[in-house]
Amino acid sequence: DWVMRDHVEKAVQRIREQVGSEEVILGLSGGVDSSVAAALIHRAIGDQLTCVFVDHGLLRLDEGKAVMEMFAGRLHAKVVHVDASAQFLGQLAGISDPEAKRKIIGREFVEVFQAEAAKLKDAGGAASSGGAKWLAQGTIYPDVIESGGAKTKKATTIKSHHNVGGLPETLGLKLLEPLRDLFKDEVRELGVELGLPHDMVYRHPFPGPGLGVRILGEVKREFADLLRRADAIFIEELRATIDPASGKSWYELTSQAFAVFLPVKSVGVMGDGRTYDYVVALRAVQTSDFMTADWAELPFGLLKKVSSRIINEVRGINRVTYDVSSKPPATIEWE
Ligand code: XMP
């Protein structure tokens, strides 16, 4: 629509005025905010933008591939893809406390990103200006309010993973935040106007520590691989199942949905044999603010299909459960 088109024009103009011919670095996470920020800044300054995509090995199935295809492939943006999974998993070995895991993931993330940013700052890339001068972030208006101290302690913790806080000072970069005045809905509309796919712009939130907080206890690559496949089946079926009453998919009717890996084994049967394999819990919630949430009353037919697909397709998982706990007292994530 023309209001959004006008908004894009103005935002593009402002970014050009702000950065001139200088170079910009942006941490791309695959989430809505950083994706829209990247698309907008790329529209404004093209190759003066370099995106850094840190893959911590705890992303959903094919997430890295999708991000690269979209930004490097379709938008022709400069994207540095850092596969840091070995480093993250190495640091997480032997650690089972949820807060300790969060801290390690947050710390490693900052370290890896900072190292890449420092290279871009010093080297100067292809452009004339000799090194990046700006750090762009997908900060949106609710983040601005939150960091003003209006929210709970938990929210502050969450932010430490999301926004690479403190980086601009450490790196001596200027901060570029073109979504600072926008609410989530406006960010999504802007994303659509910029040509990002609907599915990318209207996706469920995904926590910064990723599958790290969805694998209970110690994180292992083997567990992450099993969880990724189970989770992808769940999401695929949620997208494919339409609720006749509303005409919407169950992905749209839920605010967040995912699988959780439980590192316990239970007995099952397959053919003539006995199995002794891991358990996956499915979690789907409906909420308007993520502070409170109800477990979603998914149709039994959908649960049945997801369960049988996971057990048949993901060797190593022989039992699927559905989480019927609301928040509070349960949190949305299991850790
Ligand atoms: P909880 O589990 O506290 O989650 O009910 C509320 C919302 O916050 C997300 N969440 C996180 N996001 N880093 C993030 O970026 C985190 O450490 C983190 N922990 C929870 C969660 O996915 C839900 O949307």
TrEMBL record:
UniProt KW Acetylation keyword: no
Pathways involved: Purine metabolism; GMP biosynthesis; GMP from XMP (L-Gln route): step 1/1
Nucleotide-binding listed as a keyword: yes
Residues of the full protein shown: 203 to 537 of 537
Domain of life: Bacteria
Keywords carried by this UniProt record: ATP-binding, Glutamine amidotransferase, GMP biosynthesis, Ligase, Nucleotide-binding, Purine biosynthesis
Catalytic activities: XMP + L-glutamine + ATP + H2O = GMP + L-glutamate + AMP + diphosphate + 2 H(+)
Gene Ontology MF term list: GMP synthase (glutamine-hydrolyzing) activity
Protein name: GMP synthase [glutamine-hydrolyzing]
EC number: 6.3.5.2
Job description of the protein: Catalyzes the synthesis of GMP from XMP.
Binding site for ATP: S29, G30, G31, V32, D33, S34, S35
Ranges of residues in domain GMPS ATP-PPase: 2-203
Subunit structure: Homodimer.
